[in-house]
Amino acid sequence: MRVLIIGGTGLISTGIIKHLQARGGCDITMFNRAQRESTLAGDVKQITGDRNDFAAFEHRLASERVDVVIDMICFNKDQAQSDLRAFAGKCGHFIFCSTVCTYGGKIPGGVVVDETFPQEPTSDYGRNKLECERIFLAAHENKSFPVTIIRPSSTYGPGGRLIDNLEYNPVAWDRIERGLPVLCSGDGLGLWVSTHRDDVGKLFAFAAMSPVTFGQSYNATRDRNFTWRDLYRESADAIGKPVDAIFMPADWIVGHDPARFGLLREITQFHGAYSSEKAKRDVPEFKCEIDYPPGAAQTLADIRRRNAWRDSREDKLYDEMVQKALAAGVTPVRL
């Protein structure tokens, strides 16, 4: 099976390649700008280029004979339409990496969001991904190529970051290590799910060329949905320190710097619990086996290895926010 991954060195891509190699019988090629560290083992072919140079992208890949295309870095309609020009009628299966952000922030009656839930995204990221989904599913209906949509949620692992409730690249982990309180929105009881990159990658790898997945959309999340209190406590356990959390309204936190706390503003203040029962039914190999605590410890260790650990002592704004909350009489909660 000849597999082309648009991307290839990112977080989920690394998990995909790992499981394609374990699956066996796969000739793997990745197309990217070759600007990120690659920790891939085994024989993986590299094509270097910029997918946003549409003419060059389409011309370069016109000569590639592939069975499966997995696009991990398509984020807008122009990139999606370029994929159609490049691959329509030329591949046996097209897999698009979308996001659970296409669902938005509403809470269903059964609490957990499955693939039937209305897609009403609250972020530009989610809206753009949904537009791409619609382009690809229309191509599937027009028989340009069989399409599968996969929607990961928050994904972590070596090579990536470990988000907190506020931001993608938090100072919270350094503050916990130093015995300092951290901020969390609301009461910390909002639901969330974080899935290790290797488990997410398994769904992509084993969905490839599986006819039952053609025309389908799947959530790619582990079974356990937990609260933000759980995430902070278990991340602190991975650091080896206790955590004291200060709970403040999301609007209060975002108001101090809407750009910096865009993750909280657009995504993490909302409901985030998902079901992947459909994916497990159609792709039995998709079994999430990495628990959060060891996965978090692995990720934090890799952040240190890459010298990407964020030093909280340089963050005056965060400390000012904490001091303001304490001065207002808010008591930190030991989780």
Task: Describe, in plain words, how this protein is organized in 3D.
This protein is of the alpha/beta class and 335 residues long. The chain folds into 2 domains: 2-156 and 195-220, Rossmann fold (3-Layer(aba) Sandwich); 172-193 and 226-273 and 294-326. The protein is 38% helix and 16% strand. It has 12 helices and 14 strands. The protein has helices spanning 11-23, 54-62, 77-87, 124-141, 172-177, 197-207, 228-239, 250-256, 262-268, 277-282, 292-305, 316-327, and strands at residues 2-6, 27-32, 45-48, 68-71, 93-97, 147-152, 154-156, 182-185, 191-192, 194-196, 217-220, 226-227, 244-248, 333-334. The relative contact order is 0.14.
- Using the 3D structure, state the CATH architecture of the largest domain: 3-Layer(aba) Sandwich
Listing every helix as H and every strand as E from the N terminus to the C terminus, the arrangement reads EHEEHEHEHEEHEEEHEEHEHHHHHE
Radius of gyration: 20 Å
The largest beta-sheet arranges its strands as 3-2-1-4-5-6-11
Structural category: alpha/beta
- CATH superfamily of the largest domain, please? NAD(P)-binding Rossmann-like Domain
Query: How many independent structural domains?
Result: 2
The first-level CATH class of the largest domain is given as Alpha Beta
Global outline: globular
Strand and helix map with partners:
Blueprint: E1 2-6, H1 11-23, E2 27-32, E3 45-48, H2 54-62, E4 68-71, H3 77-87, E5 93-97, H4 124-141, E6 147-152, E7 154-156, H5 172-177, E8 182-185, E9 191-192, E10 194-196, H6 197-207, E11 217-220, E12 226-227, H7 228-239, E13 244-248, H8 250-256, H9 262-268, H10 277-282, H11 292-305, H12 316-327, E14 333-334
Parallel strand pairs: 1-2, 1-4, 2-3, 4-5, 5-6, 6-11, 7-10, 8-13
Antiparallel strand pairs: 9-12, 13-14
